[in-house]
Amino acid sequence: MPVPHPGATYVTMNTGYAQMIVSVNVTRTPMDKGTHIKQYAEHGLGMYRYRKCRCEICKGAAAADRVKYRKYKRRFYISADPLIAKLQQIEKLSDIDSNTLKSWRLKGINIYSADYWCLKYGYHPAQIFGQSFYKGCFDGEDGY
To answer: Rounded to an integer, what distance in angstroms lies between the CA atom of residue 88 and that of residue 128?
Structure first.
């Protein structure tokens, strides 16, 4: 429990593990000299961040908040063999780094890189990869 502040009302909650502050109402006086106590009225993201509460409600709120900032990591890989063959045919294989080629041979090429490299040399990805290119394009969560 913090040091009592003049004019403050403390409401505490006993969780079984420890006693924590749930709500603090402050009436500021001229003697405060800039002290400020925020209000944390209920469990959630504020309690998780500022009061370090780790109950299920607070952890759930923090997890839900972090979901907004996650990058979309779902990638679709297709075989890079048709692209490599086409680049050998037009003698442009030397433009691609050897580590990139090794990666393409091991795990394939994602559809966005395939699109980039095909368009760079003047081909539509469907000309090189056929229908396998479209397999990964329309399998997203949005239903497109």
So the answer is: 13
**List of residues 6+ apart from 13 with CB closer than 8 A:** 19, 20, 22
Give the Cβ contact number of residue 136 at 10 Å.
Answer: 19
Report the half-sphere exposure of 30 (CA within 13 A, side-chain side): 0
Q: Domain ranges in the chain? A: 9-67, 77-137
Rounded to two decimals, the pTM is 0.47
Measured CA to CA, the distance from residue 117 to residue 115 in angstroms comes to: 6
Query: Per-residue pLDDT tens for 13-31?
Result: 544 444 444 444 445 555 5
**Best CA proximity match to 129, nearest among 115, 144, 143:** 115
Distance, in Å, from the CA atom of 49 to the CA atom of 44, rounded to the nearest integer, reads: 9
Fill in the DSSP letter of residue 63: H
Helices 81-89 and 98-107: angle between axes, nearest 10 degrees: 140
Backbone dihedral angles phi then psi of residue 78, each to the nearest 5 degrees: -125, 165
